């Protein structure tokens, strides 16, 4: 849980107001780098400077300007932003309830979680229980970071998560675009469908990790220690001549991988039940 709320306000649900605090729900784990001067390895400083006055500017000397014409700006002050007449200022105003599957995932932007003030725990719990039992999520608007954002509120276990959503004019894909006009046979569709069936499973996020980040850290540690870095082999590129052959080969590979995984899991399952681990399949006993 975050130590400090990034926003405080209320969730308005009809005539009910629920005071809440908002926290960032996700964390960027990317490895960051500093920019260095190639000659002396000193860290480069990013400075705000004025090309007309030819000097570095202090933070209090900088203001926001909107360019309404070439080289012409209107100044927008902090007070101007604070005084924008919006009903969603200081409030997450719920406007409707929908099914989660009605929202295209491309619209999801950023995740936050909401916690109620101590005095608002009962209405907060009532709201959470009601949307869980209805199987719905709330659509709302909220003004944060100089923008009125569309958002949805959805329960995640015992937490109320707010997802900011992109507006339709912020999405660059073309809606209603037809599929590529190419001939696909029923046999190819059936084979692709079978491959999908083979690869279908429940989503378990714990199975996935950032392999690139781990590999990059190994490179960094090796360079710190002065060790040589072993180059990885490039992924082999194959030209698919026959789509059916490629689908068949994919299915055979996945079937073999699943059989191998099952063989590895059987001794573990047997040991967990208190039984003896079965002998490995497909291996001949030595004659001696």
What does this structure look like?
- Helices cover 27% and strands 25% of the residues.
- The chain has helices spanning 78-82, 121-134, 186-199, 211-225, 243-272, and strands at 7-13, 16-24, 49-50, 55-56, 64-69, 72-76, 91-98, 108-116, 137-144, 147-156, 159-165.
- Strands 1-2-8-11-10-9-7 form a 7-stranded mixed β-barrel. It has a two-stranded antiparallel sheet with strand order 3-4. The protein has a two-stranded antiparallel sheet with strand order 5-6.
- Helix 3 (186-199) packs parallel to helix 5.
- The longest helix is centred in the C-terminal third of the chain and has 30 residues, at 243-272.
- The model is unreliable at 280-288 (pLDDT under 50).
């Amino acid at each position: 849980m975050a130590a400090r709320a990034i926003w405080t306000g209320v969730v308005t649900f009809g005539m009910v107001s629920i005071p809440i605090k908002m926290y960032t729900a996700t964390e960027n784990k990317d490895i960051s780098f500093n920019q260095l001067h190639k000659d002396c390895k000193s860290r480069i400083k990013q400075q705000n400077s004025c090309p007309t006055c030819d000097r570095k500017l202090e933070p209090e000397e900088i203001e926001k300007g909107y360019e309404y014409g070439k080289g012409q700006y209107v100044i927008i002050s902090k007070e101007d932003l604070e005084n924008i007449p919006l009903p969603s200022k200081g409030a997450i105003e719920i406007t409707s309830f929908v099914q989660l599957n009605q929202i295209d995932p491309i619209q999801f932007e950023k995740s936050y979680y909401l916690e109620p003030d101590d005095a608002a725990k009962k209405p907060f719990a009532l709201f959470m229980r009601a949307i869980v039992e209805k199987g719905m999520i709330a659509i709302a608007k909220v003004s944060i970071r100089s923008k009125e954002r569309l958002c949805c509120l959805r329960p995640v276990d015992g937490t109320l998560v707010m997802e900011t959503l992109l507006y339709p004019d912020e999405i660059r894909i073309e809606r209603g675009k037809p599929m590529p006009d190419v001939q696909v046979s029923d046999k190819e569709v059936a084979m692709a469908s079978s491959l999908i069936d083979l690869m279908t499973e429940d989503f378990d996020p714990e199975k996935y990790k950032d392999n690139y980040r781990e590999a990059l850290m190994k490179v960094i540690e090796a360079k710190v220690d002065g060790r040589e870095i072993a180059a990885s082999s490039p992924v082999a590129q194959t030209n698919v001549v026959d789509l059916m052959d490629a689908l068949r080969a994919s299915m055979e590979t996945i079937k073999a991988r699943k059989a191998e995984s099952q063989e590895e899991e059987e001794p573990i399952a047997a040991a967990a039940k208190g039984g003896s681990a079965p002998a490995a399949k497909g291996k001949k006993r030595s004659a001696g």
